[in-house]
Each structure stands twice: as C-alpha cells, then as structure tokens.
Predict the structure of ABC transporter permease.
Amino acid sequence: MPIWKSLLSRLDAVLALAILGAIALAALSAPAVFPDGPWRMVARPLLTPFTDITHPLGTDALGRDLMASLMFGARTSLAIGLVSTCVAIVVGTSIGAVAGFVGGRVDSALMRSTEMFQTVPSFALAILLVAIYAPSTVSIMIAISVVSWPPVARLTRAEFLSMRKREFVQAAMLSGQSSLRVAWSQIFPNILSPLTVMAALMVSMAILFESALSFVGLGDPKVVSWGYLISAGRGVMSQSWWLTFLPGLAIMSTIVSITILGDAIGDSQDPYFERRESK
C-alpha cells in the first residue's frame, strides 16, 4: 500500500498531518503576516487573548504580539529540529553502515568512538557545546546533531549486521556488485522503516532540546523560539498564564503529531502491517 494511502486510512495520522500542516503554514507565512517581525511593541503589555481583534492572542510583558512570536518561534523550532536531525541521520547512518558492513577492527573502532559520545548525558553535552561556541542558531544545530547521531549509528550498524547475512545480499555480492552498491541498493531500502521512526523521534527531541536550551538562556538572542517564550513568560505566570501555556501547547502539539506521523509511516512500510490492513 502506498504511504499516502496508509496515512489517510488512519484518523490519528490525518489529524497529525493537519496539525503539522497548520504549524508549517504559520511558520512559512510569518514574515508576510507580520512584516515588522516579532520584536515590535504594538499594544499595551499583558493584553488578554481574544480581547483585541488586531492581537487575538494578546501581548507579552513588553507589549509584543504573542501570535507573531509564536509564528516566528515555529520557524526557529522547526528549522533547528529538521536541520539537526538531517545532519545526525546522515552522520549516524554513514558511520553505522560502515561499521556494520565492514566489521572487524573498523567496526570496533567506530563503535568505541560512538560510545565515547554516549558516556556524557546528552543535554549536558549540548549545554557545554553551546556555551563554548556562544549561543546561536548554528551552534544549537551543531550541538543537537552531535548528541543525536550515536543512537542512529548503533541502529544502522545493528540493521546492517543483520542484513549482510541475508541470502539476497550474499547473492548480490557474489554477482560482482561493489560493496557500496550492495549497501545502497540492497540493504539501505530495507532499514528505512526503523530509520523513519527514529528520525521522527529525533525531530521531536531536537525541538525539546532547543526549547530547553532557550529556556535556560542559551538560545539565539537574535531569534524568537518557543523555549524563549516560555522562559520570558514564567516571571508573570501567575497573572498571565497564556504566555507560557500557548508556547507549551505548540511544543506539545508538534511533538505528538510528529511522533504519530512517524509511527504511521513506519507501519506503512512494515509487511506485516500491510497484510493485516489488506484483510
């Protein structure tokens, strides 16, 4: 069954797509809807949501439009989540594929190097890297990529170790195909399902990492993010709860939707799932 048909057959996947589509549309249209950006003070501070039609979600403690901040924050959070995940997937898949396919001393050396990165707690290492290179969008992406690739490498290695012993892989190698061609055409397509699920989880974790870094003051001071909004609103939480609730709701909705969509895509590539759905 094609992936899109499988997704449309599941209500949770359709809802997840709708939520992610709305968030992506908000992120892409933010500069057009708010050409002055999210930093401009437009009304009195702490304006309650739905009391002013020009500022439907209210304003923060400095009188800045909260809707503009949320839309620009979506651009930051999604961009960091997607870019850092793509980098981690490429690095982790490459290292894991080489380790699993070549084996021997190469496998041992690469896995010992991978374990070195996993001995330090991920968030602590991310804080250290961002603090060393100064808080910026690029440094945050690099830090999240560095702490995210080891699990990908271990998963890819395990899958390659299992796949290289299969009959069709052995037949392809005996037919004279190069190792790179065998790995790319015979093994890699068969590990896309677990990689897709892991990538979805990694995007979610990257968004959480970025939000946590911004919350503790290590976000990029030149851009607005959901974590920054939560951090900025915690000082007035007792009287203006929406300043922390709405960014938190955006983070939760994005993460849950990405996780559901990743599970649905993984199921659509599972032969057992396809046989069950066809009955």
User: Anything to note?
Assistant: The chain has one domain: 22-45+57-278. DSSP finds twelve helices and no strands in the chain. The CA atoms of residues 79 and 116 lie 28 Å apart.
